[in-house]
Description:
The complex is a heteropentamer of chains A (347), B (305), C (543), D (347) and E (329). With 347 residues, chain A is an alpha/beta fold. Chain A folds into 2 domains: 15-239, Rossmann fold (3-Layer(aba) Sandwich), CATH 3.40.50; 257-275 and 290-346, no CATH class. Chain A has helices spanning 32-37, 69-76, 99-108, 126-136, 142-155, 161-164, 174-186, 204-221, 232-238, 256-261, 266-274, 314-318; strands spanning 15-27, 42-54, 58-62, 84-89, 92-93, 109-112, 192-196, 224-228, 241-246, 249-255, 324-325, 335-336. Chain A is globular and about 65 Å long. The two termini of chain A are 33 Å apart. Helices cover 29% and strands 22% of the residues of chain C. Chain C starts with 18 loop residues before the first strand and ends in a 13-residue tail after the last strand. Chain E has helices spanning 4-30, 37-40, 47-56, 63-75, 89-124, 129-143, 146-160, 179-183, 186-219, 222-229, 234-261, 266-271, 277-286, 290-318. Chain E is built from 14 helices and no strands. Chain E has 2 domains: 4-76, no CATH class; 89-308, MetI-like fold. Chain E is globular and about 85 Å long. At the C-E interface, helix 2, strand 17, strand 19 and helix 12 of C face helix 2, helix 3, helix 7, helix 12 and helix 13 of E. One magnesium ion binds at residues 46-47, 97, 177 of chain D. Chain D: Its main location: membrane. Chain D: It is found in: Cell membrane. Chain D: GO terms for molecular function: ATP binding; ATP hydrolysis activity.
Amino acid sequence: MSITTKPESDSDSQALIDVNDLSKLYETNQSIISRLFGEKEYLRAVDNVSFEIQQGEIVGLAGQSGCGKSTLGELLVQLQEPSSGEIIIDGDDITEYSSSELKTFRRKCQVIFQDPYEAINPRFTVSRIVSEPLKIHSIGDRQERTERTIKALNDAGLSPAEEYLGSFPRELSGGERQRVNIARAIVLEPDFLIADEPVSMLDVSVRTGILKLFEKFKEEMEMSILYVSHDLSTINYLCDRTMIMYLGKVVEVGKTRNVIHYPSHPYTKTLLQSVPDTQKQTDITEESVQGEVPDPIDLPPGCRYASWCSYADEKCERDEPLLQQRDDGEEASDQVACHYPIENNAV
Amino acid sequence: MTLLGDALTKNQRIVLETYKERTQWAVQRFLSNRMAAIALLIVLGTLFMAIFAPFLAPYEPQANIADAQGEYSMLEPPSSEHIMGTNHHSQDILSQWIYGSRVSLLVAFLSGIAVMLIGTTVGLVSGYYKGTVDLVLMRVVDILYAIPAIPLLLVVSLLFGSSVWNVIIAMILILWRTMARVVRSQTLSLSERPFVKAAKASGASDLRIMYVHIAPNLLPIILIEGVFVMGAAILLEAGISFLGLGTTEMISWGVMLQLTYTSGAITHAWWWVLPPGISITVLVVAFFYMSRGIEEITNPELQHR
Amino acid sequence: TGGGDDEALGATPDDEDDYEPVPEMEFASVAQDEDALRYEVGNLAERQLQALGIETNREVVDVGTYSDKLNDREFDFMVAAWTGGTERLFPYYNLFYSFHSQFANLEGGNYTMFESEEYDEMVENFRDEPDESSRVEYAQNCQEILAENVPIIFTVHPDALVAANTDSFDNWQEMTGLYAYNNIPSLTEIENVGGDDQVVFGTTEALETYPNFFNVTGPDALRLHAFTYDPLVRLGLDGGPIPAAGEEWEWIDETTLDVTLRSGMTFQDGEPVTVDDVAFTFDSIQEEGIPYLGSDIDPYESSEILDDDTIRFNLSNPFSGFVQITLYRIPILPEHIWSDAIADHDHPSEWSDPDMTGSGPFEFIDYEPGTQIVYEKNHDHYLADEFDFEQFVYRLYGSQSAIIGDIENGDVTFTQYMGAEHWNQADDIENVRAISNPGLDAHGIWIPNNEGPFRDVRFRKALTHAIDQDEMLQILLQGRGEQAKHPIAPANERYYNDDVAEYPHNIDRSVELLEEAGFRWNGEGDLLMPTDWQPEVEYIPLE
Amino acid sequence: MSLVNIDGVSVEYRTDNGPLTAVDDVSFTIEEGETLGIVGESGCGKTTMTKAFLRLLDNNGEISTGSITYDGIDLATVSEEQLRTDIRWKEISYIPQNAMAALDPVYTVGAQVVQVIELHTDNSTEQARERCAELFKRVDLDPNRMGDYPHELSGGQRQRVTIALSLALSPSLIVADEPTTGLDVIVQDQICELLAEIQDDIGCAIVFVTHDMGVVSNISDRVAVMYAGRIAEIGTIDDVFDRSAHPYTIGLQNAFPRMDEFPASSALIEIPGSPPNLLDPPTGCRFEGRCPYATEECRHTDPSSVELEDGHRIECLYPERRSEFREHGNEPDTWKDAREAEAKQTP
Amino acid sequence: MVNLSYLGKRLGLMAVSLYAVITVLFFLFRILPGDPTSQVISPRFSAEQQEQLMAQYGLDEPLYTQYFLYMRNFMVGDLGQSFQHGEPVLPFILDRTINTLILTVPAIMIAFIVGPFIGALFAWHRNGRLDNYGTAIALTTYAAPIFWTGMLALMVFSFSLNILPSGGMRPAGEIPGSPLNRVFSFVTLQHAILPIVIFTLWRISRPILITRNTMIDVLGNDFIQLKKAEGTPESTIRYRHAMRNSLLPVVHYGALAIGYAFGGSVILETVFSWPGLGRTMWDAVQAHDYPVVQGAFFLMSFMVILFNFIADIVSTWLDPRVKDEGVVE
Ligand SMILES: Nc1ncnc2c1ncn2[C@@H]1O[C@H](COP(=O)(O)OP(=O)(O)OP(=O)(O)O)[C@@H](O)[C@H]1O
Ligand SMILES: Nc1ncnc2c1ncn2[C@@H]1O[C@H](COP(=O)(O)OP(=O)(O)OP(=O)(O)O)[C@@H](O)[C@H]1O
Ligand SMILES: [Mg+2]
Ligand SMILES: [Mg+2]
C-alpha cells in the first residue's frame, strides 16, 4: 500500500472539497465454477486518491475507460460507500453523515450522469424529472416549483422551456435529453456539480452548447464542477485544473494548460497523442503504446503504467511512484506520480 | 404572474395532450394486433357474462329442474328448452356455464391483482436493498419454488376448507413467487441505472425511489406477468376443482368438468363436456394473447422488428 | 344465501321483541371426492331447509374433520350414513349402537344424543333375544319409535349398484347388500364362459390399510382378508350365516356358543388348522386390539377348547349377533406365523411385510399399492372346485368411467360401488349385466337431539317434512333406491318395518308443525323462536 | 473502374407511421484500396448505407431504388444464395456498429474466427486455427486469447477480434461501422492505426463510418459527409476539410474543440437546431432549417449534386458562394442569427 | 482445488432450504383440522384404543418432541412409517417415483429437447404463418386443462377405438418380474403412451414459448447480424447461435420442471389410473398420512433444489457470462 502525499493546491482560498486517501474496492463477481475453485478477489477501482476542489473552479478528470473516474464521482456524493478515506466538504466528513444529514447535503451537491439516454426516468415527463428534486426537498409550492423548473430548463439551454414540459424523454434528441439531465442537476442550485462525461454520447453539433453551459454556471453561479471525461480536447476547452487517472490512481494533476501542453507523466503524453484532431491529419506515426493494460484485479507491485511505458526500468517495476510536486521549471507547477517525469517538452 | 399562469395552462394542456395521444396510440396499437383485440373481446365478453349472470341465465344454476309433470330431464341434449342441454341432475347447463364464468374471473382477477401487489413489493424490496434482505426474501422464494404448486394447493385447501376465497388465497400464496423474482431481477438492473442514482443523488428516500421511480418502469412487466398469472390461476382452479376440492358455494367451469368426469358423462354427453373445457382453454389463451398485446405496446424492441 | 323469500312463510309474531331468530346453523358434509352422494344430499337438503327460513352455513370437510365433528358432537346438521355390509342384515349396529342412551356420550356412537328409556329397553331385548321372531318384533318396535321421534332426518336407502361382464363369466348371483358380487358365495356361483381364468374386480376405492390384518381399518380390507383367511362362518347369498371353517355351531345358553371346526383343513403352507389357531386369533385380537374390530370382539370373553374339533366361546354379555357378526368378521390366523410377530413387535400391526399365509380359498400373491392385489386359487381348499377361475385381481382405477370402459372390453370382470350415472351407462352396454341390488345403506341428516329447537319432536318432524326425499331419489340416485323412514332398509326383509310414521315432502305441514311448536316468521321469511322458548314435546312413546 | 458503384440508392423502412426514407438517392463510388470515411450526425443514415452493401437491412427495410454494383454484380438484386456464398465475407466483410456486442457470447473468440474460415474455405480445422492465430497476431492480440470468451476481453480487444474476423478471408472491401465509437482515445488511436496498417498490407478498400471528424480526418483518403439521408459533401480529405463548401460541413468543423489552442473557448460554435424528421422530410434543402445562409429558394428547390472539382461534390444550391460561407462560418454570430431566426419561425 | 468454503456455502444454502421445507411441512400438516389419528382411528374406538394407537405412531408426544424425533430420524434416512400401509416411507415413495418417472422422463425429455427447436423455428419466422399458428397451438395445449384433454384422449383411443388401454401400468394380474421389467416392457409402453403424449403436449408448450420469446430478443442482437454478414447459413445461425443463446431461461425452467417431475402430476395420474407418486401423495393427503406426504414433498423439494444447483452449473457452461446463481451480468 502506498502513502500519498497530499497535493497542495496552488490557491490560497479555503477548499470546498477536500479528499483524503479515498479508496474503493469492489468484490469481483465470479462464476459459480471459479467460485468453487478459487478465492475471493477485489478490484481496486479507486486507490488512495487525494485532491481538493475550490469554490468556482472547474476541475477536469481524465483517463481511459475503466480507470475509476465515475466511481470517484459517485464516491463524492456518497452514491457509493468508500472502502477507506475521507471526503471533507464544508468542513464535515460526509462519509460519516447520517441519512438526514446526507439528504441536506444532497441539496448542495448534484451529479450529471454519464449517459443522457439512461440518466433520466423514461416514464417521467420533463417537468416531472426536473421538479422531482424540489419535491423531494419540499421546496416551494406547485407554482413555485414550476417556476424554478422552467428557469432551470432555460438555464440549461432548453428554450422555450414550456414547450418541453410535457414531453417524455424518448421524444427528445440526445442533446435535449442531456439538457434535461443538466436542468435536473441544477434546479436545486447546488454549490458543487459532478459532470460525468456529459458530452461523450452526443453528436458534435450539440456538444458545444453543453460545454458553454458549464462555463456559464461557473461564471454566473460560482459553481464548482468536477468535469469527468476521457476526451482531453473538451477538458482543454473547459477546465481550470486537470487530474489524470490511471488504474485507480491519480498520476498527474495541475493547471490544465500545464497538463495538456506540458505533460509530465508519460501516460498523459500518450493520452494526448491519441486525441484525434482534424488538424493533426494523418501523422499518426508517433510512438504509440504497445502491450496490455494490467488487470486491475491483479496489479503489479511497481508503477502501474510500467508495462506500457517506453521509459520504464526496473525501478518502475519495483517501486510505486508517489504523487509529488514537480519542482523544475515554471510551466510545470503540477504534481506527478512518476519516477522519471518528462522534462518540459510541450506536445 | 399572469404570464406564468398562461404558461401553466398551456403546459398542462401539452401534458394532457401527450397523455391522451399516448393512450390513444397504445389502444390503437393494442387493437391493431388482431389476436390481442379478439382476446380483449373474449375477456370483456366473459366479464359481461359473469357480471350479468343472474339476468342472462335462464334457470337457477343449481336447481334440479322438473317439467310441468314433475318429470326431471336428465342428460338431455340441447333443445329449445335447454339450449345447452341438461346434466345428470337435470340442471341447466347453459345457466351453469354462465354462472361458472364468475368463479374463473374472480379467481383470475383477485389472484392476479394480489400477486401483482405482493410480488411487486417483495421484488422491489429485495432487488433494491440487496444484501441480507434480498438473501432472506429470495430464500423464501426459493423454498416456495421447491414446493410443487398443485400439491401445495391441495394441502392448503384441505387446511382451510374448500371455498372460492381459500382457493384464491392458496393461489396467491403460490403464484407471487414468480412475480417477485421477475420484479427483483428487473429492480436489480434498474436500481443500477443512472436515473435511479440521480434520484438518490437528489436525496429521494428509499421508499420514494422504489415506488415513484422504479415501479412505474416495471409496470409493463408487472402487467404482462400479472395477466399470465391470471391465466395460470384459472387453470389451477380448474385443476383443484377436478380433484374435488373446488368451490362449493358457486359452480365453476372446473367443477362442471369435474362432474362430467365423476359422472362418466365424458363418453356420451358432449354438450356437457365441451363447453366448460373449451371456455377455460379459450379464456386462458385470451389472457396470454392480451399479455402479448401489452408486451408489444410496452416493449420498444418488438415494435420495429 | 339467505333464508326464505321476502315473505313470511307462516304466522308473524304479535310482538317481535319477544322473539329472536333461530340461530344460524352449520350444515356439514364430507367433500365431494370422498363421497359424492353425501355431498350432493347436503347440497339439496340445505337448500330445502333454507326454504323454511332457517339460516344455514354450509361446511364441506374432509373425512378426518368429519369424524371429529361427530365425535365431539359439534354439528347442527351433518350428512351421514350407515353403510350396508351384509352382516348388517342383523341390524345390531344401526339400532343398538347408534341410539342406545348408553352411547350418548363423547365415547359412544349415539351421535345424535337420542335418549329414551323405552327405546333402550326395547333394543336391549333385541340384542339379547335368541329367538328370531321375537327379536324381529323388538326390532320393528324400535323402528316405530325411531320413525315417530325422528332423531335423524332419514333420507334414502341407495341401491348397491354393480355391473359385470357377461362374455367372460356368467350365472352372476348377487348377495344382499353392498358387496353384491364381491363375496365368496357369489364367486363360487359364476361360470367361466369366456375361457379366461382370471376374475378382475375393478374399483376406485384405494384400500385403507392392507395387508397386515392387525392393521385393518375398514370394510374393504376386511373383505379381502376373507379371501386369504377363512372365518368360522360366511354369509350366504340371502345373508344368513352358512358354515365355513366352522362346520356347525350351537348356542349352549345366552352367553355360551360351541363351534365345531371343519376337519382336514390346512393352511396354505401345509400346517393344519386347529382350534388352537381359533383361540389364538380371538385372544390376540382381544389383547392386542384392532380398533376397527373393537365392537366385534367386545362381547367375546374367553374360549375353551373342548376337543380337537370343538371350541367354546364364552361371552361377557348376551349377544344374539355373535355368529352373524363376530364369527363372520373375524377370520382364523395361523398361530405359528403370528405368535412370533406378536412377540417381535410392540404391536403386530408394525410388521410391515407380513407373511400372508392363511387357510382361505385364495393365496395372496402380490400387492402393489395403488395398482392391484393378486390372488391365486388355493387348490387345497374345500371350496376349490367351486371356483371356475384361477386368479382373482383387485385392481385400482382412477375413475369409474375407465372401469366401465374396461368392463365393456373385458379387461375388468365386475365392479361395485357405482354411481347411478355410471350404472346407467353400464346398463346400456350389451355384454354387461348391471344390477341394482337393493341396499342396506341408510342415509340421513344427523341432528343434535339435545340442543336448542331440535329438542322438540315437532321441530324435527317439520324439518323432515321440508326435505324432498323423492327429489333426492330421482336426481341423486336416478331412482335407484328407496326413501328412508328409519335406519333399516326395505332390503332387510326380515327386520324391515314398513308400517311406521311417514313424512312426505310438504312445506305447509312443516309450517303448521313449527307454528304449533311456537315458532314464527318475520317479514323477510326468517324463522323466529320465542326468547324463552322451551320444548313441549320431547318424546312420543309407542302407543 | 471503381470497386463499388453506388448509383441512386434509396433505402426505405416501413414503420407504423409510414415509410421512412433513411437513405435518399445517394450515389458515390468506392475505389480499390482507398479508405472512404462517412461522417454525419446520429440518425443520418450511415449505418443504413453500410448495411445496404451486404443487404443486411432489418426486415422492414429495403433498397427501394438504385443499384450497388460490385464487380459487375448488382448487390441490390443478386440472389440471397449467391450473396451468401460468393460475396459476403469473401469479397466484402463487415464490422458492425457496436462491434463489442457483435461476437456471440457463448463461443470463444477463436472458435468464431475459425468458424468463418471453415465456412468459406476448404481448410481443415487445424489450418483454420493457424490462420486464426496469424490473424490474432496481425491485430496485436496474443493468440493464446483465442480460447477466451468475448466477455473476458476488454472493449478494445473485442474490437480487434472483430477486425481479425473481418480480415479472415482477405476481402477486397471492409465496411467498418463506427469501429471506434465508445472506445477510449488510446484504444481508438490504436484501432485506427491498425486499420491503416492492414490496408497497407493487403490493399483492401475500407469504408469507415464515424461521427468523429477528428478520426475521419486521420484515417481516410476521401470523406462523405451525410446529412439526413443525403450526401451533403464528398471529396478528398483536403477537399472536405480545407475547401469545405457545404455549410453543414463548415458548421461541423467549428464544433470541434482543438487541442493546439489554449484556451480554445472562442472557437467553439454549435450548429443550432436538429435534423429534420425523416418520416416527413421538408421540401427543398434538408439543411435549410439550420443553415445560416438559407434563402427562400432553399426552401423549395431540392439541391442536386454539383461537382466542384474532380470528385469533390456538394449538394447545395450555392456552390459558388462557398468561399463566402467558409469565411463567415468561423464567426459565432453567423450561427447565432440562424438560431434566432429559427426560434422565431417555430411558434 | 475446490474452494471448500464456497461449496460449503452453496450446500449450506441448499440444506437450509430443505430444512425449511421439511419444517414448514411438518407443522403445516399438524395444524390441519382433524388430527392425524382420525384417519387411522375409527370413531368407534374406545378412548383406550385411541390412546394405544396414538402411542403406536408417537402421536401422543407433545408437538415439539414429535418434531425433534422426526428430525432426528430424518437425519438417518428414516422418514417414518406410513399410517396407511404400515410400510417405511422412503422405500415406498421411491418405488412410486419409479412409476412416475416412466411417464415424466420421456415427456420432459421430449419437451425440453424438441421444444426449444420448435420455439427457435417460431422465433425465426416471427409473425409468419408458422409462428402464428404454431404459438396458438402451443398456447392451446398449455391452456387446455390436462384432465380434460386426458379424458377426451381416453374416450377416443381407449373407449371408442379401443386401441389403447384405459389406464394403469399393465394388464390386471400381471406381476412385473423385476423393476427393470416394470420400466422397460412392451406392456408398460403400451399403457404409458397416451399419458406420455398428453403430458408431453402440455409440457412442451412452455419451452417452446420461452425459447421463442427469448430468441426474439436474441435475434435483435448485433452478433446475429454479423453472422449473417459472414455468410453463415441460416440454420447455423438459427440453432448454433440464436437458439443456444436463448437456452438459459429454458434451462432454469427445466430445472424446476424436472424437480417437479419427480412428484408426477396428481391430475394426470388420476385420469390415467397411474400409480405414481403424485397420486400416492394425493391419497396420502386425503388420508392424513403425513409421513408419506412429507416424504413425497421432501423428495420433490430435494429434486428441485438439486436440479437448480445443476442448472446453475449447466448455465455457466451454456453461457460463459453467467455468474453465480444463473445471473447474466
Ligand atoms: N458496481 C461495481 N462493481 C464492481 N466493479 C465495478 C463497479 N462499478 C465499477 N466497477 C469497476 O471499477 C472500475 C472503474 O469503473 P468506473 O466506472 O469508475 O470507470 P470510468 O473511469 O468511469 O470508465 P468509463 O470511462 O468507461 O466510464 C472498472 O474496472 C469497473 O469495471
Ligand atoms: N429498422 C428500422 N426501422 C425503421 N427505421 C429505422 C430502422 N433502422 C434505422 N431506422 C431509421 O433510419 C434512420 C437512419 O438510421 P441509421 O441507423 O442508418 O443511422 P446512423 O447514421 O447509423 O446513426 P448512428 O450514428 O446513431 O448509428 C434513423 O432515422 C433511424 O431511426
Ligand atoms: Mg464512467
Ligand atoms: Mg449507425
